[in-house]
Design goal:
- The chain is mainly α and 140 residues long.
- The protein is 74% helix and 0% strand.
- The protein has five helices and no strands.
- The longest helix has 30 residues.
- It is elongated and about 55 Å long.
């Protein structure tokens, strides 16, 4: 079976969304690595007792890693039936993680809410996944 015939025609956009998310994760990870050096936080220490800014940089990355597996699952389920919508929603979510991190990097945790628009993308792919499930169950 040829995967190019099984996947929806616009699934390529979803693949680019996955690549975009990989770039975002690499960026956040590099920022934590740089902050470890700048604030002298050695491995395996997760947080600093001395510097709130380091903790904010670390939390921006950690929080993204905490939600990333769920996003991947819902993104994939949604994309199998609604590839274009899922790609747009995914791009919104990934972009919001940059905004979230940049707000957090200020050292003021309340500024992380600059990325709150990401819930549009996150909840959007959850909603589309629910639609796929209901369609598979013959509900509509």
């Amino acid at each position: 079976m040829d995967m190019l015939q099984v996947l929806p025609a616009n699934f390529g956009y979803v693949i680019f969304t996955y690549l975009y998310s990989w770039i975002m994760l690499c960026y956040l990870g590099v920022k934590v690595g740089g902050a470890r050096k700048k604030y002298d936080v050695k491995y395996p220490t997760m947080y600093s007792d001395k510097d709130q800014v380091f903790n904010c940089i670390q939390r921006a990355h950690q929080n993204t890693l905490e939600v990333y597996p769920q996003w991947l699952v819902f993104q994939t389920i949604a994309a199998l039936v609604y590839p274009t919508a899922a790609a747009v929603l995914g791009a919104i979510w990934v972009t919001s993680r940059f905004s979230y991190a940049w707000g957090y990097y200020t050292g003021d945790p309340s500024k992380r809410m600059k990325g709150a628009y990401g819930y549009i993308g996150y909840l959007g792919v959850i909603g589309l996944s629910m639609s796929v499930a209901l369609q598979l169950l013959g509900v509509f």
